[in-house]
Specification:
Elements (H helix, E strand, L loop, with lengths): L1 H14 L11 H45 L1 H4 L5 H11 L5 H22 L3 H15 L7 H18 L16 H9 L12 H17 L14 E8 L6 E11 L5 E10 L4 E12 L7 E9 L7 E3 L19 H7 E9 L2 E12 L2 E7 L7 E7 L5 E10 L10
Antiparallel strand pairs: 1-2, 1-11, 2-3, 3-4, 4-5, 5-6, 7-8, 8-9, 9-10, 10-11
Length: 409
């Protein structure tokens, strides 16, 4: 039960100061709540196991979110973009916690109704009081003086009823360290880069976004090695952003004798007002014998509005997320079980007979269309969420003979 209450308090932290509405806290309302709490407890016991499971899922998702965001500062600021949803779904099992919270709210309906009836209150007023009392017990003192006096006098009673130790006062006004602020700052930016104001920091933010898109999303989980000179083009569409799409070209310009590789990633970001093109050519150097970890040691780039490429500074600590960010590979038996069949997939002027592989994931699906006839072996990737929102990455062309556009040697 204690874990369940902690889970509720964490969700309250996400709501910020919205909980402070017009529910008056008096000695009488505290008494009413305590009476309702007695009636609520038996109903809570009936769903406590399911509530604890949901609280654990929510906590795990938030931990995973923080881990993915912290893996690369640039990628962390882009978790709401086209790459972000697919990345979170494959790494964390969901694109957000809304589904978990709705399920939790549904489980709480019967217990809170029993408590509200016993307290002689409306359900929303009873639930709101519980939120306020929980925040107080966890250290918030952001209450009117008259209400704070009541809470200070009845703190021990509320602590016993809710099973939460009374914490020392702390500021809960939503400072930079709060859970809500951290999550909002990570998820709120989407692909909101001003492509015409590419400072060095913004350049690396975009590099991180691209690596997250190509590797951490799981799009390349089945990818095979490109041959020197091979290139592919792709169109990425997110059903939640119907007015925008992203066009990508990937090309292995050359593979050197020491197994270093020059790659080009060209993107055209098409929105409602403009289409911005970025060209990045990067030298990847292997850090292990297997080539599973590659470090970027040099990069040239051409940003929107620029006519020529220029050398970009590469931080010494920078390594790609690509070769090791999605190390998990399904077993052959798992792939066989997930194979839907063979389908014809059009990719620009070419058509491929592709193996359709479909896995379930947190109420959604992850699908790949695979063929050894195309560079890289993948011609289409699609992630579908629980509410049928889709993120699709489809090949639009492929070929050979790729050369540097920015004069790399």
């Amino acid at each position: 039960m204690h874990r369940m209450i902690i889970g509720a308090a964490l969700m309250l932290a996400m709501s910020g100061t919205d909980a402070y509405a017009q529910t008056k806290i008096t000695d009488e309302t505290v008494n009413q709540f305590l009476k309702g709490r007695e009636a609520e407890e038996p109903e809570l016991e009936k769903v406590s196991e399911k509530l604890e499971e949901l609280d654990e899922k929510i906590a795990n998702f938030r931990e995973c979110y923080e881990m993915v965001a912290g893996a690369d500062n640039a990628t962390g600021r882009k978790l709401g973009g086209l790459a972000g949803k697919a990345m979170l779904r494959t790494k964390c099992g969901a694109t957000g916690e809304d589904g978990f919270l709705k399920e939790r709210q549904k489980l709480m309906e019967a217990p809170e109704k029993a408590g509200a009836d016993a307290a002689g209150m409306k359900v929303r007023d009873y639930a709101k009081l519980k939120e306020l009392f929980t925040l107080y017990l966890y250290g918030s003192r952001d209450f009117p003086d008259s209400e704070l006096a009541v809470l200070n006098a009845r703190g021990a009673d509320l602590s016993g009823a809710l099973g939460i130790a009374l914490a020392k006062a702390r500021n809960t006004s939503g400072g930079s360290g709060s859970v809500g602020t951290r999550v909002a700052s990570g998820a709120g930016n989407a692909l909101g880069i001003n492509m015409r104001a590419m400072t060095p920091d913004m350049t690396w933010a975009y590099v991180g976004y691209l690596w997250g898109l190509m590797y951490m999303s799981g799009a390349t989980m089945f990818e095979t090695a490109y041959e020197s000179g091979q290139w592919t083009t792709w169109e990425i569409v997110d059903s939640d952003q119907p007015d925008s799409k992203l066009l990508i070209e990937r090309a292995l310009i050359s593979r050197e004798a020491d197994r270093s590789e020059w790659w080009r990633i060209k993107t055209i970001s098409i929105g409602t007002e403009s289409a911005d093109t970025v060209v990045l050519e990067s030298l990847f150097k292997p850090l292990d014998e297997e080539g599973l970890t590659m470090q970027v040691v040099r990069m040239r780039g051409r940003m929107p509005g620029e006519k020529e490429g220029q050398e970009l500074m590469v931080p010494q600590h920078l390594t790609t997320l690509g070769m090791t960010a999605f190390p998990m590979k399904p077993t052959p038996e798992s792939v066989e079980g997930a194979t839907v069949g063979t389908e014809t997939v059009n990719a620009g002027s070419q058509s491929y007979s592709a193996r359709h592989v479909k896995f379930g994931s947190a109420g959604g699906t992850m699908e790949w269309w695979l063929t050894d006839k195309a560079p890289g072996g993948v011609v289409r990737v699609q992630f579908t969420g629980p509410e049928n929102d889709t993120w699709t990455m489809a090949m639009t062309g492929a070929g050979s003979g790729a050369k540097s556009e920015l004069g790399v040697k």
